[in-house]
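Box 3.1 — From sequence to structure: Peptide methionine sulfoxide reductase MsrA
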Amino acid sequence: MRRLLSLAFIAIAACSSASATERVVPAARLDPPAAGQQTAVLAGGCFWGLEAVFERVKGVSNVVSGYAGGSREDANYERVSSEVTKHAEAVRITYDPKVVSYGTLLRVYFSVAHDPTQLNRQGPDVGTSYRSAIFPQTKAQADVARAYISQLTSAHAFARPIVTKLENGPFFAAEAYHQDFMRRNPNYPYIVAHDVPKVRALAQLMPQLVKG
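Predicted structure (token representation):
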């Protein structure tokens, strides 16, 4: 189902305890430096929340909500919502690796941005378009992501297995009304229940990464 939740469910969710990922996982051991402006594409549930978290990270200059893993022809909200296009809701993050590394972005991704142990869903949102997936933009990113998942698995960072996959595929920006959704709709019930806690967790658990 899409983000059409009953008010009762939203109220319960808003009062629930922290999610499984609202913790700081270990830093990536493999995290080589990169030169010049870089982009990262990450999928992990509703792109509203991913965008809201990463646009607050130091070194990130732009975050775009969109769709990754499918064709351009099907890259629209109605088609992706049908769960037959192979897209995942994702964000494209533009960042300065001199300020924030790819490994650090992945640390935020696994710590507070989503739950990497949920298969084809995130919270109330169910379907393959909500899957946990990393779309490396370079071989170096693929190496870091693969090593980091292995590192977190070996460290038993989560009580359940990590289901995050590395995938290939282009990224397409979502419709204009999805961009900066939390900033423009801070009191929207879904945002209050599911995305505000992620932003709050980032500030509380990783304050050194938050823009001033």
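Summary of the box: Residues 63 and 93 are 5 Å apart (CA to CA).
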